[in-house]
Design brief:
Blueprint (H helix, E strand, L loop, with lengths): L6 H10 L6 E3 L2 E3 L6 E5 L6 E6 L3 H17 L7 H17 L1 H12 L3 H22 L6 E3 L5 E9 L2 E5 L5 H14 L3 E5 L6 H13 L6 E3 L4 H10 L5 E5 L2 H13 L4 E5 L5 E4 L5 H13 L11 E5 H18 L18 H16 L3 E4 L3 E2 L7 E2 L2 E4 L6 H4 L6 E7 L2 H9 L3 E2 L1 E5 L3 H10 L4 E4 L14 E2 L2 E2 L6 H5 L1 E9 L2
Parallel strand pairs: 7-8, 7-10, 8-9, 10-11, 12-13, 12-20, 13-18, 17-18, 20-21
Antiparallel strand pairs: 1-2, 3-4, 5-6, 6-24, 11-23, 14-17, 15-16, 19-22
Helix pairs in contact: 2-8, 3-5, 3-7, 4-5, 4-7, 5-6, 10-11
Bound molecules: NADP nicotinamide-adenine-dinucleotide phosphate.
Length: 499
């Protein structure tokens, strides 16, 4: 029987909820060694949220030691692949079974609509763990061609202790993108979630342990980036950092790896993705793709389609359609409101940053078509309405900087060459799209767009079979798909001579 997911349902659930805010190390909940904590502010209403352990280098040492002990003992990596698969699948099911609770924790932390947390974030998190669980008994090594007196086996072996550092925009999904392949490959993990969004990570680790992951295979240390993420990335006994976050911090992570033990690094970083619309395109489809692509998750999406590069003759009609779709389909409301499609921004400081970037853009001459204003201030929460600026040029700050809010910059063009030049004129290369009915042009364009994912006549379509990640300063290494397993493995050659 389907549940009545009303506002009352979530309010009642919330009043009974006691979120866990301690680290999860070696299969146990643990306060910070300093005893220090910090308290989150709820983005949906500005009220105090959960209290969390404020981790430090000592806590990271404890978690890394637990991860190392689990790895060295072989308790996980040497387990029968069928057994490992069963545990991962049990974990995925436990995530689904605790879906309401996980969705609520996510919404309390990040302010997105709780139904989106449930139907998108929880679902994709469980699907991710399942996808990699199902791969465990299908991973083969290789035998290389050699003369008959020799045999060379090329083994794919786990790397060891992985430090995973994740952001706050899709916490559960991105955690699963890292935990799924890293653990399936046989590694142990120390996860440092963003300080704003640790509740779901702690619960995910508890559920994994209850499903049968041995102690120490998955550890979570909560706290601030400088106090926990940095010591994790500098740690001499961590073999790899899998990072998702800003390009700025990604560069620091590379530095920490170089300063310490040359640990491997995989970086999923920022974006300023172009969506190019030619005048011959289906403008209704394009308008819907632009609006959802840019405004979903309140624009707090790394691959949000924040630059609309539109053929000049179609700009006016397309913007009118984008406004209509935004107003009719993308309801901004309190995250417990069942009609909400988008909710609050992550925190007051971030909302103010978004508003000040908008103000700076207007000073430079950006022309507002609609929206991009603070709203629902009476709730105490941090809401900004989706908005569009038109007749922009690609050198304006709203077209260049990652705003991470619901703000679209529309840049008109006159020729295909100009559209391509503008689309590629960015330090980022995460994603992009082209809308046109001319398939020759669509393929020419998609080949020439420097981005890890290019969509044709759609946006933001994906599944676990497709790799995700960026070119240029959007990082390197790929999450999702079978290829993500390679990231968490080393190749080892075992050469045998038959005497
Ligand atoms: P962020 O500020 O770079 O933080 C990401 C993570 O790094 C957080 O856990 C953060 O901890 C930690 N951190 C901060 N300073 C650190 C340091 N000196 N050493 C080690 N760790 C440190 O990014 P964010 O604001 O959370 O997320 C938004 C960014 O993520 C955007 O740029 C977005 O494009 C990018 N992103 C990319 C992808 C992708 O797949 N390419 C996906 C999602 C998001 P604290 O939170 O405690 O500071």
């Amino acid at each position: 029987m389907s549940k009545p997911y009303s506002r009352d349902y979530w309010e009642a659930f919330l009043s009974a909820l006691k979120p866990e805010g301690r680290h999860f190390i070696n299969g146990e909940l643990s306060p910070s060694s300093s005893g220090e904590t910090f308290t989150r502010t709820r983005p949906m209403d500005g009220k105090p949220g959960a209290t969390l352990a404020r981790g430090n280098a000592g806590d990271i040492d404890r978690a890394v030691a637990a991860a190392r002990a689990a790895f060295d003992s072989g308790v996980w990596r040497k387990k029968d692949p069928l057994e490992k698969k069963k545990i991962m699948l049990k974990w995925a099911q436990a995530i689904r079974d605790h879906g309401d609770e996980l969705a609520l924790l996510e919404t309390l932390d990040v302010g997105k609509p709780v139904m989106a947390s449930l139907n998108v974030d929880v679902r994709l998190c469980a699907d991710g763990i399942q996808f990699y669980g199902e791969m465990i008994d299908k991973l083969y090594d290789e035998v290389a061609p050699t003369p008959p007196s020799e045999r060379a086996i090329v083994r794919k072996v786990p790397i060891g202790v992985i430090g995973a550092i994740t952001p706050w925009n899709y916490p559960m999904i991105i955690d699963a993108w890292k935990l799924g392949p890293a653990i399936a490959a046989g590694n142990s993990v120390v996860l440092k979630p963003a300080e704003q969004s640790s509740l779901s990570a702690i619960r995910l680790a508890q559920l994994g342990f209850e499903a049968g992951l041995p102690a120490g295979v998955l550890n979570v240390v909560t706290g601030y980036g400088e106090e926990t993420g940095k010591p994790l990335a500098l740690h001499m006994d961590v073999d790899m950092i899998a990072f998702t976050g800003s390009t700025e911090v990604g560069k620091q992570i590379m530095g920490y790896a170089a300063q310490s033990n040359v640990k491997r690094v995989a970086l999923e970083l920022g974006g300023k993705s172009p969506l190019v619309v030619f005048a011959d395109a289906d403008l209704d489809a394009a308008a819907s793709a632009v609006a959802w692509g840019c405004f979903y998750n309140s624009g707090e999406t790394c691959h949000a389609s924040t630059r609309l590069i539109v053929e000049r003759s179609a700009q006016e009609a397309l913007i009118a359609k984008i406004e209509a779709v935004t107003r009719s389909d993308i309801a901004l409301a309190h995250p417990f409101d069942p009609s909400a499609q988008i909710g609050a921004l992550i925190e007051e400081e971030h909302m103010n940053k978004v508003l000040s970037m908008i103000a700076a853009g207007e000073k430079e001459g950006a022309r507002r078509a609609f929206g991009a204003e603070r709203t629902l201030a009476e709730t105490g929460g941090y809401y900004v309405s989706p908005g569009v600026f038109i007749d922009m040029t690609n050198d304006m700050s709203l077209a260049r900087q990652e705003i991470f809010g619901p703000v679209l910059a529309a840049i008109p063009f006159d020729t295909e060459e100009e559209a391509l030049r503008i689309a590629n004129d960015t330090i980022y290369g995460l994603a992009g799209a082209v809308f046109t009915k001319d398939m020759d042009r669509a393929h020419r364009f998609s080949e020439s767009l420097h981005a890890g994912t290019v969509w044709i006549n759609t946006y933001d379509m994906s599944n676990f079979a497709t790799p995700f990640g960026g070119f240029k300063q959007s990082g390197f290494g790929r999450d999702r798909s079978v290829h993500a397993i390679d990231k968490y493995c080393d190749y080892k050659t075992i050469w045998q001579h038959f005497g």
